[in-house]
């Protein structure tokens, strides 16, 4: 019996020793882990993997480094949530992602401009971190405009993020202006000779429009009349429900711009009509204080840079509202003596197809251009066929492109299926085609609605959204959420950088009919 007791005491001592050693090891591991976490959370540690110096240079120029308080906000204070709110989990994820990029990718191939956009930045900046430092959203030093903006944010916290308005506070960008209406651009070279008159059109043939009083000209294509099946067949790959049922419609001859309205063209309108802060009512018309100015009131200065600093010139004019696009057409009609307007949805699809009935106006099915595997999704650039005709997510670098990089469709039109989405005159309805009479001539869509049709896909669209039959619609409220102005602008969109428009000209008594 005594022997068993001695053996039991021995086991207890052994177990206690093991527990004690384990406890010491646990403490050592915990302390070491905390030291490792602390050591890998310094700015110097971040620089080991992030070998792009411009990020650190822009950080040191930002208000998170250069400020009146002398405080320096480090990398992890924005790019990781506060401790106790998922810090370790996000640190492991970020560390694994960054290490993979460091060892297996070439930083020279990274699209840093795209990674700095709101779309991508929101995945690497944490709202909780912003709030942990900026707990008081209404300090005494805040301007009245800032108070209005922060009040709007506090009422819409589920839909907005701090970086919606403060995207560049962590990394200074001299081209990104915050909390300021800006003047921008100029229409055409001042040294060029200005056109004295609009183009004279006497027949249904291609022509080059010249805007009187400016140096701006653009090409219009004569689109022949005909019939086609609007929408897509049920068997079409990546088809959506609102693309059917297919109906045969007739379209009368008209003219359509070769490219989306360029910044050069839009700035001619802006320079001639810009309200420059003059009061307009909610319908965009001038009030009694404006009776001494021209009949058409143009845009007020935009809030921030409307071209996203991608460049102007022949790139499509973007970020303007539907109202702004309509007003441009009215102005263009006035100064040229022709009937310019936005295309109907039927006219748009008829022109985009260029006489074809397939998903694209070129050879190929949607799945021919989709990545077949995981490696393709990571590194795919799109096929040469689609790259020749469409600017979309795989080849755009996530920004608009100049029109000369793509080839035209059979009607001579460029970028109909990508680059920037385009407003149409029709109200949107998911079941619009079911209510369309088979054999209808020049249909104009529903008589009323809440949102308008947009067509054509964008520089961020996957292949399914750049098919000829793909449909979409405006998001009036969502596209204006972060406009801090009260009331919000009727001219410019704060939250949509992929919308543009293309004009059509009617073939009527003003164009030789």
Report a brief summary of the structure.
It contains 14 helices and twelve strands. With 513 residues, it is of the alpha+beta class.
Overview of this structure, please?
The protein is α+β, with helices and mostly antiparallel strands and 513 residues long. It folds into 3 domains: 1-39; 48-164, no CATH class; 207-511, paralog of FGE (formylglycine-generating enzyme), CATH 3.90.1580.10. Helices cover 29% and strands 9% of the residues. The protein has 14 helices and 12 strands. It has helices at 2-39, 43-49, 53-61, 75-79, 87-104, 112-115, 118-121, 127-133, 144-155, 263-273, 322-336, 345-353, 374-379, 384-387, and strands at 207-210, 217-223, 226-230, 247-251, 254-257, 340-341, 421-427, 440-441, 452-455, 471-473, 499-500, 504-506. The chain has a 5-stranded antiparallel β-sheet. The protein has a 4-stranded mixed β-sheet with strand order 10-9-7-11, covered by helices on one side. The protein has a 3-stranded mixed β-sheet with strand order 3-4-8, covered by helices on one side. The model is unreliable at 276-294 and 373-381 (pLDDT under 50). It is found in: Cell envelope. Residues 221-475 form the Sulfatase-modifying factor enzyme-like domain. Residues 13-175 form the NapC/NirT cytochrome c N-terminal domain.
